[in-house]
Amino acid sequence: MAFITGTVNSFDDLRTALLDGCTANGWTLAGNVLSKGTCFVAVAAAAADRLGVQGGTGIDDTNILTGAGPRAPMMYASQSGMAITWPATYRLHVLDDEVYLVLNYGVGFYQWLAFGSSPVVGLPGTGNWYGGTFDSVHIGGLPYIGPQNGGGYTNAGTITSCSAALFWQTSGWSPGYCVNSYVHHALTDTNDGWSGVDAIDVGAKSAASAIVTVNPLMSSQPNAFNGETCLLPIQPIIYVASSKTVMVATLQHSRYARIDNYAPQDILTLGEDRWCMYPWMAKNASARDGGRAVAHTGTLGWAIRYDGP
Amino acid sequence: MAYEIGFVDNIGSEGLAHWQMLAKIKELAEANGWTTLRYLTPTDGTNRELILRGPGLSGDQQIFVGFRTYHDATADYYNMSSAGFTGYVDGNTFTAQPGYFESGIPAHNLRIDYWLTVNAQCIIFGLKVGTPVYEHGGAGYFLPYATPGQYPYPLFVGGMLNGVPATRFSDTSHSMYVKGSRANLGMRFIDGTWKQVATWPWNNNSLAQTYQLRDTNSTYQLLPVVLCDGSNMYGELDGLYSISGFGNVVESTLTIGDVDYVVLQDVGRTGFADYYALRLS
Questions:
Q1: ipTM of the complex
Q2: Which end of chain B is more exposed for a tag (fewer CB within 10 A), N or C?
C-alpha cells in the first residue's frame, strides 16, 4: 500500500502521476488500461479540461478496454464556481485493489477519481467499481448533495448536478440522470452487468447507491454525546424486483464520514488504522448539509485509509 | 463466544422448563468468567432470581446483569426476563438494585429449545417455545463507538416485553428487541438514564423497510446491529447480526470463515426483515 503526493500543472501531469503511482505499486499498464487481477480501468489521455476513468472487465489484443462500464466519470476543470487552478496538489492512495486519487486546488477545493475491485462474497460479477466527481455525459453543474440524497440532472430547470460523491446517487430528473459511480455486479445482463445510469429504484438499469444504506446514520453524525465521527461503510446496493435490494460491493479502504470536527487532510487514528479525511468537494461548516447547485459539499466527506508519514 | 444449543423441559432437576433455563444461563455464565451474586430458587411459585457480575473483555470490568423467572399457573404463562444494573446490593430486592432496568421474555413451563451464547461481557439467547414461536433476551455490554472514558458502562438489556407484564408467548403483538425503537430494548446512557434507541439496519428504508435487503446470488450479507438515534451512533450489539429473510428459514445455519451462526426469527413473524443471525463461536 502506498501514499504518494506531489504538485502538478495539468491533467496530463496528473495522469502521469496516477499511472506511475499505480504501476509502481502492483498495477499493470497496457495502452491506456491499468489492470490488477480482474480489475481493468481505462485512463484515457487527458484533455485540457478533464481527466476521466472508465472501468471494464478485460482488455483485447490491441490493449482496448472490453466490457466497459456505462460512462467515464471525471475531474473537470472548467466548472464555474469550482474551476481548477494550477498548480494543484495531488494525493494518491494505492491500497491493495483500490486506488483513490484526490486533487486539492484553490486551497479548499477537491476533486477525485477512484476505482478498484471490492466484490461482496457471492457476487457473480467482478465487483469492479469506479467513479469521479463529475459525470461524463451530463457535464458541469455544481453539486447537489445532502446527508441522505444527491445527484440528479435536468436541462429544463436549474439543477444540472452530480452529487460529487462516490455512490451517493438517490435522485434524478428528466430527461437524464447524472451518475458518477458504477459497479460491475453481473446480476443482470443490462449494461453488460454494470450498474446503470437511471434512478436507483427502477430495476435492472438502476444506478448503484451506497448512501441509501447508511441512512439515517449519516444525519446523526458526528455524535452529539462525544463529538466523535463514526466512519460508515461504503457498500453499494442495487434495487431489484419485488422491492428488494442486493449488496454488490464493499469498499475496503474508504468510508463515508461527516467532517464537522476535522479539517481536510486531517488524519484520524483508530487503533492501528489511520484515515485521511477529505470533503467531497469543499467543506462548509456553516451549511453542513450541502445543498442544491452549491459550490461546496457541507461537512459531507469521506475517509481514505492512509499509509503516509 | 461460548455457546450451548439444547433444550430444557419439566423433567429436569428444577421441575419447570423456564426454571431449568435459568440454571442453564447460570451454568454457562459461570464457566465463562461470570460470578453469581444471587441465585434464588424458591419452589413455591415465587420468582427465581439470578444476578451475575461479569469481568468484561478487558478482565477488569464489573458488569451487573440479571435474569429471573415469573409465572402464573392459573394464567398459563411462564416467563423469564433480562435485567441490567449498575451495582449490586445484597439486601435489596431484584427491582431495587442500583440502576435497574428489566424486560420480560415469554417462555414456557414445558419444553424450551434454546441457543445460548456467553462471553465475558454479555449473555444472549434465543428460545423456541410453544407453537413454536421464538423469543429473545440478552444483557451485558455492547461494543461502544467511544473510548472507555467517554462511555464507561455501555450496558444494554434486551427482552420481548415492556417491563415484566403477564403476557403469554401466544400474544401476537410483542416483538424482538433487536429491531430497536421499542421499550424492550434499553441502553444505559452516560447520564445514567436508560434510552430507548433505534437500531440500524431496521431503521433504514432500503434495507429493512420499504425495500428489504435480499441475498447476493444465494450468499447472505450479515450487517451489524447499530444502536442509534437522531444525533448519535452509540455502538453495536456483540454477536448479533441482521440477516435477510429472503429465501431463508429459522434455525438455518451459516459459516463465515471459521465462525458459525444460527438464524432466528421474531416470534412467529417470517417477513424479510424479521430475522437475525446469532454468532455461535
A1: 0.95
A2: C
